[in-house]
Sequence to fold (96 residues):
Amino acid sequence: MKVVKNAVVKEKAVETVDVEDKGLEELLGKKVLLFCMNYFYAGVLVGVNEKTVLLQNGGIVYETGAFSDGKWKDFQEVGKPLRVYIDKIESYCEGK
Fold:
């Protein structure tokens, strides 16, 4: 993956730096937030394969509230392991 370092105004050279991207695997065992096509999903990432990720204590975040808050404003846990298709994930980050 190339990351822009010291971004500048158009028409000037931009320096790029190679960054190792471990993908979702680097978040195994951590709380994650998955921004998907229709919903946001949160939980502890316990599995990753070519098609799905597996969340423990996973659920749907219907309303986030402020991202700086300690918990989601409206989180509905499904009560069972939750699988999310990787091709539906638009972005992801460590959760709360």
